[in-house]
Amino acid sequence: MSRWISILWLAFLFSIPLWMIDLYVLHILINTGIFVIAAMSLNLLLGYTGQLSLGHVAFFGIGAYVSALVSLGFDLELTDTYTFVFDAKPVWIAFLSGIIAAGLFGWLIGRVAFKVRGAYFVIVTISFAEVVRLVSLNWIDLTEGPMALNNIQPFTLGIPNLWEMTLYQKIPNYYLVLVVAIVCYILIRRLVHSRIGRAMIGLRENEPLATSVGVNVTHYLVIATVISAAMAGAAGGLYTHYFRIIDPDIFLFIYTVTMVIMVVSGGKGTLAGPIVGGIIFGLLPEILREFAAPEMQWIIYGIAMILIVFFLPDGIVPALKNWWKNHRSKRTDSAEMDAGT
Description:
Blueprint: H1 2-19, H2 23-49, H3 57-72, E1 74-77, E2 83-86, H4 91-113, H5 119-138, H6 140-143, E3 149-150, E4 156-159, E5 163-166, H7 170-192, H8 195-205, H9 207-212, H10 217-243, E6 245-246, H11 253-266, H12 273-289, H13 294-311, H14 316-340
Antiparallel strand pairs: 1-2, 3-6, 4-5
Helix pairs in contact: 2-7, 2-10, 2-11, 2-12, 3-4, 3-5, 3-10, 4-10, 7-10, 8-10, 11-12, 12-13
């Protein structure tokens, strides 16, 4: 049953550009899809290891900036007599470079930050995000600072020097984001159901017990951080090559808060949770914009979040699963009673 639901859901998602005439709606769906990928990456860390990272936007921004710089090329004056010149690379190489760079920073932060726990870990992640933001703001020779990097190359498909298609339009970008989201979902699903995933869940449920049976805490937490950071970097790369402009505002704390809201409201520690939460809280601001003033939009947004957390403390997806399980149980009991009579 669940397999058929997944197939129908994918068929619906792939069919949207075929009947959706309004390109602005496609733009909103693309932007929402990018943040769904970022939310899925955060869920791997928050939902499956129990580690709250409030600096996750740093990996998103690192992927975006590295991908943009590699695709544009840059000159960096190291001394008065020597300037390092980096020639522009194809967009896909730039995109992969952003993913790798975000993963490497994830490894570095994991090795350092997981020496502490609780509030200290949260402080380390927030500090890291702020440091990266200040670097992007003040290293003007490299990042252009508040003036932003612009004219970033969009994605291209095809064979170099033979046939190439540049993804300027929204429909191919929509499919690109959808495919990347599906790949990330499959990777997370396989990881969660593997030995590594079981170790991560064990650390989340009872770290002392997991340690006592030989689970290397730092090792598995660093693995989760690296994969999570790399996926966030992929989301950042999609963002920068779709919007084609990037500035230090990409490191704003509100983006991390948005990711956390998507994960918690949808259901942390579930595969579908960040997807459901991402779609709801990605589309909700745009829906509210049609009939509510800017101040009321944020009020309604906050009320919706409070109601979900209050009435569905485990998130939307776990609540739906529990409802369906109870519904089926009642139907089974009713059928047994009818058969008995």
